Amino acid sequence: MDIKRLPKTEFAAAVAQIAGERNIDPQEIIDAIEEGLISAYKRDQKEHGVIIDEEIVFEVDLAPQTGSFAIFQIDGQKRLEVTPPGFGRIAAVTAKQVIDQKIREAERDTILIEYQHKIGTLVNGVILHADSYKMSVGIGKTEALCPKDEQIKNENLMLGSKKQFLIKSIVADNEGHKEIILSRRDPEFIHQLFAREVPEVGNGTVVIEKIARNSGERTKIAVSSKQPGVDPVGSCIGQKGSRIQAVLTELPKEEKVDVIAFSKNKSQFIINALSPAEKATVITLKDNFAVVEVPEDQLALAIGAGGENVRLAGILTDLEIKVQATK
Questions:
Q1: What is the pLDDT of residues 252-287, one digit of tens each?
Q2: What CATH number should be reported for the domain holding residue 92?
Q3: What is the torsion angle, in degrees rounded to the nearest 10, for the CA atoms of residue 156, residue 303, residue 247 and residue 207?
Q4: 12 versus 212: which is more confidently predicted?
Q5: Which residue has the higher pLDDT, 308 or 35?
Q6: Tell me, what CATH number does 138's domain have?
Q7: N or C: which end of the chain has fewer CB within 10 A?
C-alpha cells in the first residue's frame, strides 16, 4: 500500500499545538483533517475529469502521531485504497483550508458554550457594524447580533462606541449556524442594570416585582423589600440619586425611569404606579378594570404624553386603568 504523508509541520506538530493553545479537542481537528482530505481528493479527481457519484462513501485512515494517511473507497464490505500518486502536496494545501475553518468553528462552539451559561446577564459590547436590520457587536473574543427589534427605539449608537447589552439567547439559523443574540430593549436589561448598581437587588434583599417598559421613552419598575427596615425605593434611587443615575447613564437621555413601591393592596399599587402623578384616588376596582380620579392639575401627568404613563401603569398592575379629573 502506498501510504502518503502530510508534512509534519502541517499536521502532527500543528495538532498538538492548536489543541493545547486553543482548548480544542484534538479529535475534532483530526476529524476536520479527514474531511479535508476527502474534499481534496474529490476536487483532484474532478480536475482530472473523473465524476464521483455523491452516493460513494470514502474513508480516511490517518495516523495521528505521524500524519500518514490513505484514502479508501467503500464498496459494500470492501475497502479500495484510492489515494492518487503525488497527492500529499495537494492534500496539505486543501486540508489546511478546511482545518482552519473547522478550528474557527470549534472555537466558536467553545465560546457559545461559555455564553450559554451567561444568558440573562449583562456584557460589555463594542458596535462593529450596523444596518437597517441588526447591529454586529464585539463581545470578548467573538461577535454577537443585536436585531432591530432588540434595540432601543430611536437610539443611534456610533460605530466603535461601547455599551452594555443583555445576553438574551443563542439561536440557530436555517443552516444550523448559531448566533448570540443581544438586547437593550428587553425589560430584563433594566433588571440587570439595577442588579449591578444596587447591592440590595443583587443580593435579593430588594426584589424587582415587575417591569413595564417602552424603551427609549419610559420605564416603570415595581420593587419590594424582603427585609424589614429596608426601603426598596430608596435603595434603588441611592444617596442623592447616585444609583439610579448609574442606571440612566446606560439609557438614552430621553428615557425616564420611575421606581415604584410594590403593594399587595391593589388600590395602593395603582396609586403608586401612576407616579409621578400625585393625590390619585381609586374609585372603581373590579376584575381587570379600575377608574382613578386625580386633581385637574395632575391629570396630564397621570395620563402622560400619548397616554404612556397610564398605559405602563396598567401593564405594571395587570389592569386597564381609566384616569379622570376629580369631580
A1: 999 999 999 999 999 999 999 999 999 999 999 988
A2: 3.30.1480.10
A3: -140
A4: 212
A5: 308
A6: 2.40.50.140
A7: C
266 Cβ partners below 8 Å, 6+ apart?
A: 285, 317, 319
User: How far is the C-alpha of 12 from the C-alpha of 103, rounded, in Å?
Assistant: 15
The pLDDT of residue 10:
53
Residues 88 and 161 both lie in one domain: no
Say which amino acid occupies 76.
G
Q: With contact defined as beta carbons under 8 Å apart, do 32 and 102 qualify?
A: yes
Cβ within 8 Å of residue 127, ≥6 positions away = 135, 136, 137, 157, 158, 159, 160, 161, 162, 163
Cα(16)–Cα(64) distance, integer angstroms:
10
Q: Which domain holds residue 305?
A: 263-327
Query: 278, 290, 216: which is closest to 253 by C-alpha?
Result: 216
Of the residues 64, 85, 116, which one is the last residue of a structural domain? 116
Grid cell of 67 as nine digits: 500524519
Q: How far is CA 41 from the centre of its chain?
A: 40
Provide the pLDDT for residue 34: 87
Long-range Cβ contact pairs of 59-63 (< 8 A, separation 24 or more):
60/34, 62/30, 62/33, 62/34, 62/37
Question: For residues 191 and 97, what is the distance between their CA atoms, to the nearest angstrom?
Answer: 45
pLDDT tens-digit readout, 5-27: 555 545 667 777 777 776 777 78
| pTM score of the predicted model | 0.77
Q: Cβ distance 276 to 301 under 8 Å?
A: yes
Domain count along the chain:
3
Cα angle 242-243-249, degrees, rounded to a multiple of 5: 85
CATH of the domain at 326: 3.30.300.20
CB neighbourhood size of 132 (10 A): 5
- Nearest Cα neighbor of 276 from 305, 247, 240 is 305
Q: Kindly state the cell numbers that stand for 173.
A: 439559523
